[in-house]
Each structure stands twice: as structure tokens, then as C-alpha cells.
Amino acid sequence: MEPILEISGLTKTYAGGFTALLGVDLTINKGEIFALLGPNGAGKTTLIGAVCGQVRPTGGTMRAFGQDMSHGWRSLRARIGLVPQELATDMFETVLHSVNYSRGLFGLAPDPARIEEILRALSLWDKRKAQIRALSGGMKRRVLIAKALAHEPDLLFLDEPTAGVDVELRRDMWAQIAKLRDRGTTIILTTHYIEEAEEMADRVGIIQGGRIRMVEDTRSLMKRLGRTEAHISLATPLATVPEALADYHLTLGNGGQELLYRGGDGSGGGKAKVAQLTKDLVALGIDYTAIDIRESSLEDIFVDLLEGEAA
Amino acid sequence: MIVFNARSTWTIYKREVMRAMRTAMQSILAPVLTTTLYFVVFGAAIGSKMDSGMAGVNYGAFIVPGLLLLTLLSESTSNGSFGIYMPRFTGAIYELLSAPVGVAETLIGFVGAAATKSLILAAIILVTATFFVDYTIAHPFYALGFILLVSASFSLLGFILGIWADSFEKLGIVPVLFIIPLTFLGGTFYSIDLLPEPWRSVAMANPVVYLVNGLRWCFYGSSDFPIGLSLGMTLGFLALCVAIIAWIFRTGWRLRA
Lengths: 311, 257
Fold this sequence. Notes:
The complex is a heterodimer.
Chain A: E1 3-13, E2 19-29, E3 33-37, H1 44-52, E4 59-64, E5 67-68, H2 73-77, E6 80-83, H3 95-105, H4 112-121, H5 137-149, E7 155-159, H6 167-182, E8 186-190, H7 194-200, E9 203-208, E10 211-217, H8 218-225, E11 228-234, E12 251-253, E13 258-263, H9 269-283, E14 288-295, H10 298-310
Chain B: H1 6-22, H2 24-46, H3 59-90, H4 93-98, H5 103-129, H6 140-164, H7 168-188, H8 199-203, H9 207-220, H10 227-251
Helix pairs in contact in B: 1-5, 2-3, 2-5, 3-5, 3-6, 3-7, 3-9, 5-6, 6-9, 6-10, 7-9, 9-10
């Protein structure tokens, strides 16, 4: 894996004394989609701001494309794009002017064909002559994405790209982001929609209290920390869990009317266990009326991890 | 290695000029109308009753450089401040900060556009003035250079204000409370020599006096002080503004968190 961004010991203490980043170490690989997860105030936006030039770090080093970002920052910044969290742009400009401006600001010559391609890909071509203020919230967010793509960045930061966007549009944007990755763009996104990270990210990083708590491949994280949970509603309440079912580590709930199984891993091994459990229940003459079975999501894992840290 | 990004500079400049064109009623027509009213009232109406003129010049013509400066100073300051304040206010400054542009590109783009608007205004005002008063320009090239210098200097001042201000109220304070009063008291409508002591000495502390004096020399070839003094004061002010802006970019004051 070739690193495209290497952050080492990055710290940021604001003038008021608040420390937003406490020695962040993070490496992003070329061509991947990396999801940075964390609760509000964890340091996600500060970290992005430090790489993109809005925040002045108080310590640490950053290397992009193999070069120290404190030297030759112009050529490095020219290869980085940012879609901010807020809908921040001149709302009185037309879509086309605004996107052309972004391309020129990054020092590139006008390229109407490329801009048309970007606007068409984001379903903005028909709105190119409209003032941005006249667009819906979702469309405005697409304009920000178009502006960030106008200079064809190799590394793209998406800070809450689908915040406030309806489900249909969100899925549409996921498809756009996947296409960008297919073209070779490395993407770092922050999101509150954990399913977004689960759906798209190759790796996830969890940041809390200004520190990176964990970085792991999404699939292996799901496999390592994922669980199967089954709620079995019993026809007749039980006083205790039968000795013959001890290996399943079941718990009784709801006044003995529900058996709860938690186990397995994110790869689906727990489902096989539940299937075997139902056979054992029948063999023991324990009747049940319903089974509610679900696999834990990245969100459950995220919440468990944060609760674990808090405890 | 890129040391100066000309295309980025041109992009910023073009957008700022286009923004002014988008609000032409406010940024061009309004100041021209206001200045025209001054010419009508002080130049054509009152000036026509002042047979002796001022400092050897017809009074209507005498006030042309001062009125031109009044507009240039306030408009350059406003344009320079508004251009950088708006992206700060809306949050769109993120794009500028994340782009491969430094202090030189930013300054030339924003301040150049603000100064350009001021030059367009100056040209319109000078043409408009010909309808109301008879005036001549003794040193047209010096006048052009001086107008350019003053426009750039006060656009730089405006740029500093736009970074300093954290509200629209603060943005408007400096032009209204400082620039306009100092210009009125800086000899726009009279020669400083007419003031009795100690007011003449007090007036000498007003930096705008030297600007009005310099431009008046460009128009009529005579002034209260040597032209070199006016030029030196203006260049000094320009250098001070550039130094402050360089410091702002170096420290990130009010720009980067």
C-alpha cells in the first residue's frame, strides 16, 4: 500500500486553551475510501482543517504525496480537494461560474468539457445557469462537491457530505463517491451516518477526544467485533436456562419469556449457532413463538467502542 | 516549484470585478450620484457666487480633487473590506484557504479588483464633473499615478478592515466615522492655509490633508505642501498596510483557526 497522507503526532490547541487534537497519527493509503468516525467535538473537522489549510497545527508533521506539507505546500494543496460541512459559498453566483471559479482558483486553465462532465455526473448541468441560492439543500451540497472536483484532486476530503440530504440523494452520492474512487481518487470522509461508512469505506478510523482510538479495515472490524443477536420469545416462561444450553451463554429476560443469544462474529457465524440453538430447543421440548435475529452494524460497534472508552 | 499562481490571481480578480458589476447600482451608480450632488450644490450653486475662488482657482474646480478623493477613499475602503469580509462571513473563505494561493495572489486579486472599481468610479466622476464645473488637469500622468496609488492604499486598508471586522457594523464604522470626517476636514472644500492657528497645525496631523494636497497639485500645479511630502506619506501608508497584511497571513490572524 502506498501512503498518500501521513500524519504524525498532530496536535492543535486553540487560543482559548481547548485542545482539539492530541497527537494524531494516521496514514491514508492511495486509492482507498477512509471513513473518519467520531462524536461531535471529537476533532474530525479540526483534523481536516489542518490538512486543508484552515487550521494551524500546534505540533506534529504532515506529509502528502510523499512530501512534507510545510514545504512546497502550493503544489501539494493543488492536489487536495475539500467539501466542507457547511453550505458555504457565494449564493448569488450561478452554478457554472462558481465551479469555474474553483478550477481557476486552484491554478488550472478553463476546461468547459471537464466542467460539463462533472456537472452532468452530479445532475447539475440543467441548473448550471441558476443562482446557487435558488437550489435545494441537496443540490447546494452537490455544487460544493462539484467545486471540490473542479481541479481534479487526487485526495478528496468530504466533511459530512450527506448531512441533511434525503435517502435517495444520499445513495446517489454514494454512487458518485464510488465512481471517484474507481477513477483513482483517494477519499477521506467524515460522517454521522455509520451505514455510510459501512457501505463505502475500505477502512474506518475512530477519533475521540482528539485521539485516534482505532483504525481498521472495515470488513475485518465487522468480523472481529460484529455480533449476532437473537431474541427468542418462548411459549412458556422458563425459571432458568437449561443446563444443556450452557454452551450458548444464553440469558433470560422479560420474566423468563425471552431467551437472548449474543455471539458469533460479523462474518455470519452467529447465524449458524442460532440455527443449531433452535434445533436444540425443539429437542428439549421448549416451544417458542417468535425469533428476532439481527447482525450488529458498524454503528453498534462504534457505540460499544465509545461506551467502552467512556467506562 | 510554484512561487506565484497567476491564474489563481486572475480568477480572484475577475470574480471580484464581476461581483461589483452584479451590484453596479450600489457600487458605482450610488457614489457617482452622491458626488454629482456635491458638484451641483458646492460647485455650480455656491461656487458660482464665490468670485474670488480658492487658492487662485475657481471654487467649483478647486473642490474637484477633494471630492474625487472623498469618493475614492470611502469606496476603496468599502470595496476592499467587503470583498474579503463576505467569504469570511459566509464561510466560503475555506476555499481560498485550501487553495494553492498565498498572500501575493490574494492581495493582487482582491485589492486589484477593489482598486479597479475605484479607478472606474474616478473616471466616471471626472467625466460627470465636466457637466457642472470647468477644471483642468495640469499633470494628467501624475494624477493617474496618484489616483492609482491612493486607490490601492485604501483598498489595502479596506482589506485589513475586512479581516478585522466580525460584524457588518464594524465593517461600516471606519469609512463613516474616520474616512469621511477626515476627508471633509482634510481640505476637500477649503485650503488648509485658510485655517487659523492652532487649527492649521492640528489639520497637519490629518493624513488625508497630504492626499488632497497631492491630488490638487496634480490638477492645478500648486499646493499647500511640497508634492514630495504627499507622495512620501501615501507610499508610507501603502507600505504600512502591506506590512500589516503580510503579518496577518504569516500568523493567520482572524483567517486560520
